[in-house]
Amino acid sequence: MTPMPATPVIDTHVILRDGDKVLLSQRGGPYGYGRWHAPSGKLDAGEPLTVGAARELNEETGVEVDPEHLRLVHVVHHKQDAGTERIGLFFLATRWAGEPVNREPEKCLDLRWWSVHELPEDIIEYPEAGLLGYLEGGEPLTEHGWS
C-alpha cells in the first residue's frame, strides 16, 4: 500500500501586540464556543500565506496590515481528529493600522486585549500552543494532538 500525501487545512493566525498586551477574540461559533484564540482563518486556494493572514485579520477585526509587516513566529502541526490535520502559521504583525472592532458578531462574542502575563485560562488548545510557542521563544514548531 502506498502512503497518501497529507492534505492538511492551512490556518493563518495573527498576533497583534500593544506593548505587553495581545488581542484575542472569543469564539461565537460551534467550535470552541466561548473560548479565546488569536484572529485566524483558513487560507484560500492560490493565496499567499501573508496575504491570507492579512485578509483574515481585516475581515475579523478591521485592522489593516501590509503582508510585508507579518513575521512568521511559530508553526503548529495539529491533529484535530483521525481524519483532519491542520498546519497553523502564527504571524506577528510588526506594524498595523486601525482600532480592532468585532466585524463578525455572528462568529465572535468579544475582542479583548490581554496581558501576556495574565492570559485567559480558556484559550483553545491548538491556538494556545502557537501563542505560547511564540511568547516563550522556544522551538519554532509545535506538534499538537499527535499523542
Automatic annotation (TrEMBL):
InterPro entries: NUDIX_hydrolase-like_dom_sf, NUDIX_hydrolase_CS, NUDIX_hydrolase_dom. PROSITE patterns: NUDIX, NUDIX_BOX. Pfam families: NUDIX. Keywords: Hydrolase. Signal peptide: none annotated. CDD domains: NUDIX_Hydrolase. Its cofactor is Mg(2+). Residues 5-136 form the Nudix hydrolase domain. It comes from the Bacteria. PANTHER family: ADP-RIBOSE PYROPHOSPHATASE YJHB-RELATED, GDP-MANNOSE MANNOSYL HYDROLASE. This is NUDIX domain-containing protein. It comes from Streptomyces pyxinae.
